[in-house]
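Technical note accompanying the year-one report. For the benefit of new consortium partners, we illustrate the data format agreed upon in the data management plan: each record pairs a sequence with a C-alpha cell string. No post-processing was applied to the example shown here.
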Amino acid sequence: MLQLDGTDRKLLRELQRDSRRSVQVLGEAVGLSASACHRRIRALEDHGYISGYRADLDAARLGYAMQFFIEVGLTSQSEAALEAFEAAVQDIPEVLECHLTAGHSDYLLRVICRDHEDFERLHRRLSARLPGVARIHSNMSIRTVKARMGLPL
C-alpha cells in the first residue's frame, strides 16, 4: 500500500481540479519535475488512488433538463433479490447512480430525464421491469445547490 504524503495529496487535488493539464504544468503546480510528477501519477494509478479520468458533461445542454432522486423499496432484502435488482438497474442508462441504503428505502437512485414524458416512461420501466420492486418514491431536483466532483484531501 502506498503511503500518501503532502505532495501526493496536492497532486490528487490538482488532478481533480483539472486532469487535462500536462505533466509539466501539474509538476510545477506541486513542486515536482515533469518526470517525478509522471512517476507519482503512475504510482497513484497503480495503487488504485486514481480510478480513471473523465469529462464532465453538461446534462441540460445535452437535453436532460430534469433530475430525480428515487427511493426504491423491495419486496425482499434477500441476497438474491438485491443481486437481481442491482443487475437489472445496470441496463438503464438514465440511472446515473444507484446506492444501497440503510434506512427507509433499500435503494436510492439518481436519474436524469429529458422531460415529464421521459420521466413517466422511466417510472413505468422502473416499476414494471425491475425485479422485486414494492414501492417507489420520487423527488424532483429543482436546482443543484452544490455538486462536488472531487474528494476533500
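Partners are asked to follow this layout when depositing records. The chain has two domains: 6-46, 66-141.
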